[in-house]
Structures are given as C-alpha cells and as structure tokens.
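Re: beginner question about structure tokens

> Can someone show what the tokenized structure looks like for a real chain? I only ever see the sequence side.

Sure, here's an example I had lying around. Input first:
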Amino acid sequence: MPPLPIAFLLLPLFFLLLAATSRAGDPSPAPAAVPQPRGFYINCGADKEVQVGSIKWVPDAGFIAVGNASAVDKPNILPVLATLRHFPDATARKYCYTVPAVKGSRYLVRTTYFYGGFDGGAEPAVFDQIIDGTLWSAVNTADSARRGMSTYFEMVAQAQGKSMSVCLARRPDTKSSPFISSLELVNLEDSMYNTTDFGKYVLSTVTRSAMGAKGEIISYPDDQYNRYWAPFMDGNPTTESHSSIAPADFWNLPPAKALKGGITTSRGKKLTVQWPPLELPFASYYVALYFQDPRTASPYSWRVFDVAMNGKDFFRGLNASAAGVMVYSNMMQLAGKTEILLTPNGTCPVGPLINAAEIYQIVPVGGRTATRDVGAMEDLARSFKNPPPDWAGDPCLPRQNSWTGVGCSDASPVRVLSLDLKNRSLSGSLPDSIGNLTGMNTISLSGNKLSGPIPDLSSMQNLTVLHLDGNQFSGAINPSLGNITSLKELYLNNNNLSGLIPPSLKTKPGLVMRTEGNKLQ
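And the corresponding structure tokens:
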C-alpha cells in the first residue's frame, strides 16, 4: 500500500506570519530560556543562519551538493519560507539531502514546501519524496499554492546508519523543478512509538489532534519535539482540565497543552467522535488515543468507559483518571470515515471524554542495500571530484531512483552488481574500499580522467568485466587482478601505467586483456 496522497498527510500552514514567529501558527515568541529541540533545522536555499523564536535554522549547503537556491518574493513571509532549493537537472534520478544521525535512533522527519511562484510558473511541480530507500509520498502542493499557503509532511523513522537521506525525485508527470523550503530531523526518545518495528516500517503522519482545543496549532516549545497538534472541534461539548498534567506519565510524551482540553458528553451518554476528519484509504495505521479526567483528583474523580473504533473494540474498561492514560493500536486496518465510540460504565458518575489523538499510516520499508555496499559506494562518490548529481542517498533504492550508472540485484539485502560511467569526464581516484563491492560483476569507467593507482580488487571474485581504459591511472598493474577467477575482460589501455605486466594476467586462461598506450614491459 503506497503512502497516503497529500490531502491526507498535511495541514496547510499560513505563510503570512511575523518574522519573529516561534512556531507554525503561534505569533507569540518562545521563552528565551527554552533550549532548541535536539536535531537539525535546515533552511533550504538560505545563505545564513536565521533565529526563529528559540530555533536556529541553518543553511542547507552542508547537507546537499546539487540544486539551485532561490528567493521567494512575497511580503511578510516567515524566514524559513523566504528561500528554497529547486532542482532543474532533469537527468538526475533523485536529489538528496544527507543529514548526520545516530544509528538505531528514532527521528521525526518533516519536509515543508512553499511555492510562492519562485519560477514564474502557474503552479508547482508534482514530484516524489524518498527517505533513505523508501518511497515516502507524492508531493502535490498545487491546492495550497493557490491559497498562498505552505504544506508539510511528517514521518517517524529510525536511522539505519550514521546518516539519513531525504530525497526528491521526478515523476513521469513532473513538468517543472522539484523544490523544498525546509527540512527538519528531530531526535525522539527511544520510548516514543516503540511498539512499531522500525526495522520493517516507518510511520507517515496523517494527523495529530488536540481535542476541544481552539486557536493555533500546538507545537514547540509546548511540545519539546516540535510535533504539530491541530485543534479539533465538533458538535460535542468541550471541557478544560483543572489538574496538573505530566507528559512523562504518558507514552509518546504528548505536550500538556494538547491534553488541557477535551471533548465529552453528559452522564450516561455515549460519546461519538468522527475522527480523523477525512476519509482514509484502506491501509494499516498506528492510532494513539489520550484520556485525562479534567477534575481535581479525589476518590470520586474516575471515569470508566469502553473505547471502540469503527465498531471494533479498542479498549474495554478504560479508567481515565486525573493522572491520565494512553491506549494505542499499532497495526489497525482502517478505511473510509472513522468513528470513535466511547460507551460509559453504568455506574460512572460523569460522561466519557477524549483529550488528544494521533494517527499514522504504517509504511513498509522499501528494502535496503547491503550496508557494506552502501559504505563502499559512498567512499567512491567522495573519491570522484565530480560524481553524477544523483550520487547521494541509497545507491539502489527505490529501484527507479538508483544512482546513475549503478545496477543492483533483486535480492535482500540488495547488492550493487554493475557500474557503468564511461565517457562522463569523471576525475578523481578509486578508493581501496571499492574492493568491498563483492557482488560486482561489471565495472566500466572507460574514457574518463581518473588517476592514481588501481587498488586491490582480489575480493571481487564475481567480477567478469573491468574496463579502465582511456583514463590517467598510474603505477604498476596490481597483481591482485590475476587472482580474480571470474575475470574475462581487462581493458587497461591508454593510461599512464608502468612496470611489468603480472605473469598471472599474461597466462590467465580465457582473459581478453588490452594494455597498449602505457609504459609497460
């Protein structure tokens, strides 16, 4: 099941905000003493740091090597929406930001898009976004652009290595440049959303609601992880808490402000809430519901009721005390309109209530390229002085967005099988770690400007074709090439190699070798 289309993944944010705004939708500045939430806050296309409330946004130059920066010509615009980075190169299969991470740690990833007519076009491009090797969703901001609004997407994912990549990619219907306004990676606690197997899934945000709340979106500094909680009202009565709320008492650490309000009904009545306020496509979802009795704690301050969702039991005999409680389902099948039904216990002195809720679509991870291969390909990209523009992120995945010139297997984990970058004016050298690509069967780097020695490739026992002709490689031919049992074609002609041709290559049966145009004996 693909991720939800954009209409279900976002809450548009008005861009006509004061430059001092501390968080989306809240014009009051954050207290100066509040520390910045842990993570990275990247202002795409910017050339200097900008402080927005307590959050310092940094330029994106250190996280991406491709694309063009552009200003957005709109008055009174939020600083993080005043610039963007766009990607006019239609030959690249993807355009990737690479952000440092801690392997095994959990992150909230947020991408924000504000078109603002930066390219003089009538409407923004439609394109895909990718996290590591997983296709996240399509990005279609046309409706928000017509209303002069920005659009954001969120995902909760786990770092599989020392960095995470967030990429944009063209689709068959992409007519103009993909673009991005800002990118956030926020560290989450290990206890948050910990019933999800993040080795197999990521969580794509559908919505996060503060029930019975009015006014602005709740976010940082009220939520120390800068999650967005949108006000939700319906025709039911509302209530406000008078007791102290400790977020640490709840799984997922919701902000106290999101639990202050609630939707309720009178004693003995069932409470029906149509939430989320949209129709869901059939998929699996993570749902978290939060309850807290708003009355001052006492021996009589208890509410007991059953919780059902779309007619199925969610939790029976829930006691929503003044301390509060959270219940969840981590693999719930939902489709269409969704209804929460709270049915009170017959002796409960007050009606049921609900304070906050979250829902995420569960998205299967789109496979993984072997860690050893990823490391070797990243080393190779760094060794080239001018690698192809899409050489960032996962080398193989998604398959339609693999690196230019890279062929990969269908196995799990995915292996790099071939490299074809002939006649691309590449300069640089080959790192020793290229030998870690033990699944490789073909390397074709003919007609470039690569230099330095040829490294030891004897561990690449599946290699059948090695074309390094027409470059500037120097030094002796590495005798380890004779130890590659499967090698059938070795083209080293027209380089700056010198010394003796190793006997193991001269006498290797079935090998077609070319060495002319060197200083070999």
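Each token stands for a local structural state, so reading them left to right follows the chain. The chain has three domains: 39-186, 204-364, 371-520.
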